[in-house]
Amino acid sequence: MLRRNRLALVGAAAAGTVALAGVALPATASPTPPAPRSPSAIGWRACGDDGKAECATLRLPIDWSRPDGPTFGLAIARRQALDQDARVGTLVFGPGGPGDSGVQRVTRLKGGIDRFSDELRRRFDIVSFDPRGIGASHPVTCSADLLRAAPSPMIKSAAQFRATLDHNARLRADCRARTGPLYDHADTLSTVRDVDAIRAALGESKLTFHGSSYGTLLGEMYAETFPRRVRAMVLESVDDHSIPDARRFLTSELAAAQDSFDQFAAWCGRTRECALHGKDVRAIWRDLRARADRGELPDPSSPGTALPEFGLVLMAYKSFYGPDWAELASKLAALDAAPPLRAGARPAAAQAAGETATDPFTAQFCSDWSLPVRDYGEYARLMRRTEKVAPDMTFARPVMAISACLGRPQPVRNPQHRLDVRGSAPILLSNAVHDPATPYAWARNVARQLGPTGRLLTYEGAGHGSYDRGPCMQNTIDAYLTSLTLPPPGTTCPAQ
């Protein structure tokens, strides 16, 4: 247990530690933020691919209602503004997932800090972090065997439903035992307090924040909890935490996945470079799913083993994030031409090294979303409904989110509710019209919940994420972050 202002050494290489267990924060923001802490209190150490980033660890309470109780280490990283004379302040980036590493977003050159424009890197210190329970921030740790044994979310009988409930209960107990008390405090509302502790430790009186995908939920809840501590906030690929139940969660998510499949099929129809151009893409897709269901479809990543139907759908779903339509078409064409596997082939087993492995998803997601399903009958009805909404993408990744949380004790720590932000600076939302994971309808709904506080910037193209979709999107967002200049209502940017 660490107390106020006590410094500790980090076990990880090249990381400093500052204890902030004593900066307990109220559940609602005070009109005047407290005096910021000195930035020099953080023991930064050089890190990163090029040695020009800085890493540290903050000691924070596991349970913010007990600020003097047990603590954990929150890993953070920073790159300082390249032009200190033009520096605006600190931009805190909220990573997505759940499971993405914000530390790697800052420390890595390729696929990391290059996400941010030259202008942002020139004008801001860029800071991010591994959220609690993820990466280097006391990761949720579980039995590798139990993680490997996760049942398929394609539940087709009452017996399979019961087996999933049993497995989830065993996994929760195992992860809780191995992880300790943080397992029950991995929710986003707890991470909101962590972000405000980062703001205070950096010496910033107000927060400039850019959240992406699941990081937008963090931003929304920060603005709701500490509205007067927001200087500027960008929410890119927007989560809607007001969706009340599993039925509406699944139908909205899978409708977006189906829309992305429709965009892919239309692209193949008009583009000669598509490996399936001139063919019936939907018929080929239906045949591949049927072959996968029978265990006849070879897994290209594991010769001699079968690619399960869920794995096939997940492969397509992931490709829509880019979108990487040409690569997906080539993969589907190769699978279509592949000879069927011999009878009795089995799916490839997921590999996990050692006795334990990390589970960066369920502890956080299942603490943030109350999506109970009573029994197999209700689950089957959900699947029948989603099949009508998404005939090609019925078993996309959101189904796995539902199945992984089956049997979760209720109430969850951070259940859904309508967003209520009062007194915040303007918040800029950005979303692609054809986003497979965070539907455009979600962004529009969150903008309505924010009312005059929110402003929606629309990218007319496809893919998950919209900041780096050409100069229109990037320059508009950069102008808001640097000079607080909002785009006019209804602003759209063309597809790139």
TrEMBL record:
Residues 400-493 form the Peptidase S33 tripeptidyl aminopeptidase-like C-terminal domain. Pfam families: Abhydrolase_4. GO terms for molecular function: hydrolase activity. Keywords: Hydrolase, Signal. Residues 1-29 form the signal peptide. This is Pimeloyl-ACP methyl ester carboxylesterase. It comes from Actinomadura citrea. Belongs to the peptidase S33 family. The keyword Ubl conjugation does not apply.
